[in-house]
Amino acid sequence: MADTVGDWDYFPGIDALRTSGARCGSAPRRQASPQHGFVNRIYHDDQGDHRYVVFVPQNYAPNRAWPAILFLHGAGESGNDGLAPTTAGRGPYVKQRAATFPFIVIFPQCEDTMVAC
After folding, report:
1. Which of the residues 4, 86, 99, 106 could staple to 91 if both were Cys, CB 3.0 to 4.6 A apart?
2. Over the Cα atoms of the chain, what is R_g?
3. Domain ranges in the chain?
4. For the segment 58-96, what is each residue's pLDDT rounded down to a tens digit?
5. Distance between CA atoms of 62 and 84, rounded to whole angstroms?
6. CB contact set of 41 (below 8 Å; sequence gap of 6+)
7. CA of residue 80 relative to chain centroid, distance
8. 3-state DSSP call for residue 6?
């Protein structure tokens, strides 16, 4: 199940992205319980829906700061499924270590290989 950009507030470890202007969209809404592992997300804006994935550590707790990795993929993972960036680079590495990986990882996806994302 995908969640909307409004849930960004649930992940305090990505405050740096939020304060740098990376957060846009609807008002925040909180989830009832934490999700762990690879979480499919959707960012909504006036251009449409943009899929991406966030890895949340198994022992994630919202009451502490968490380090975050923003993984920028290569041209081969461009598209609009939101999943391709998890199949290359850091994605397989995180999957193999999902039970103990200690970082939040954001996997955005460039939708068009012909323009700068």
Report:
1. 86
2. 14
3. 3-107
4. 999 989 999 999 988 877 788 888 888 888 888 999 999
5. 28
6. 2, 3, 4, 5, 7, 51, 52, 53, 54, 82
7. 14
8. helix
